Amino acid sequence: MTASLSGSERPLAEAHDLALVDLDGVAYQGRLPIAHAADSLAEARQRGLRLLFVTNNASREPEEVASRLTGLDIPTEPDEVMTAAQACANLLRTRLEPGAKVLVVGGKGLETAVAEAGYQVVSSADDGPDAVAQGFSPELAWPDLAEAAYAVAGGAWHVASNRDLSLPTERGFAPGNGALVAAVVAATGIQPDSAGKPEPTMYRMAVERHGARRPLVIGDRLDTDLAGARAGGYPGLHVLTGVSSARDAVLAEPGLRPDYLGADLRALLEPHPAPSEADDGWWRCGERSARVVDGALELDGQGPSGIDVVRAACAAAWSAVDGGAALEPDGVPELTA
């Protein structure tokens, strides 16, 4: 499987009808705003792009997420938010009948989503749950994880809202739901099913809800946001304001690669030139170029900064690797947009 950068002569906000926008690392960083996010999303709306905020965080309810976004000058209604809690409840429906018992290990958002799906929420493994729904909550403690382990070991179906190992906050990266799920897996030896990204469940739910014909996924994590886009067959925009760096994009395997790259959400308002290969082996994008020689990435003489050099570097690296050439991680410098 290969996956290459795409080009768009029109700004992405005009070429697509629905943007599936990640939250942490894209719209905000913890409780702090991200530069250009609010203004760019407002302008994208004015150009006709509908927004749906799609998050792997299952701890908060859509109303709370909408309130936070609105407080950061991104006016949002609750029905413009889709959480991993809702996807988790949807996954439960594939195996459980309404009225089944579900042990919820997570925040209020997950508890509400499971209850609204018609399941009986229980709080102990002793209640004989049919499933364990596990999502992130900063208040989770050892007794909660122990109840989950007891239930899963007893035969309950383990469903995780997502398996993100880390969670970006205003102070840095903290353990995410995947780290807490791993504790239950370590105790039971049983791997859970997952509803959140990189599974494309939420994206498909969102596209169906809005009847979108030209959806665009926007995220900062290659291993969740963009992997989910690839898995679902949706074009993805990787913005460099969160977890995955420009260098990560250069080194990404095909299933994690974005279709578009942008420094931040201003990328929605701009055309995206497609890199092209020249006869001399260089890949060019705009005025910048890159190539792979003897397992190392070479850049033009203009330095490692600028979104076009990142695009050229991705195109050169992906083409080389997909063609069977070696690319050593140590041979890829740090790049900035």
Q: Biggest β-sheet: count, sense, barrel?
A: 6 strands, parallel
Task: Give the SSE order as H and E letters.
Answer: HEEEHEHEHEHEEHEEEHEHEHEHEEEEEH
Identify the strand order in the major beta sheet: 5-4-1-13-14-15
> Architecture of the largest domain, according to CATH?
3-Layer(aba) Sandwich
Helix content: 25-40%
> How many strand segments?
19
Name the CATH class of the largest domain: Alpha Beta
Overall structural domain count:
3
Morphology call: globular
Structural class: alpha/beta
Task: Write a compact overview of the structure shown.
The chain contains 11 helices and 19 strands.
Please tell me about this protein's structure.
This protein folds into 3 domains: 12-56 and 198-269, Rossmann fold; 85-194, Rossmann fold (3-Layer(aba) Sandwich); 276-330, no CATH class. It has 11 helices and 19 strands. The model has no long low-confidence stretch (mean pLDDT 94). Helix 4 (84-92) packs parallel to helix 5 (108-116) and helix 6 crosses helix 7 (177-188). The two termini are 27 Å apart. It is of the alpha/beta class. It has helices at residues 12-15, 37-46, 62-71, 84-92, 108-116, 142-153, 177-188, 201-210, 222-232, 246-250, 307-322; strands spanning 18-21, 28-29, 32-33, 50-55, 81-83, 101-105, 120-122, 131-134, 157-160, 166-169, 172-175, 193-194, 215-219, 236-239, 260-262, 276-277, 283-285, 288-293, 296-299. The strands form 5 sheets. The chain has a 6-stranded parallel sheet, with helices on both faces. A 5-stranded parallel sheet has the order 7-6-8-9-12, with helices on both faces. The chain has a 4-stranded antiparallel sheet with strand order 16-17-18-19, with helices on one face.
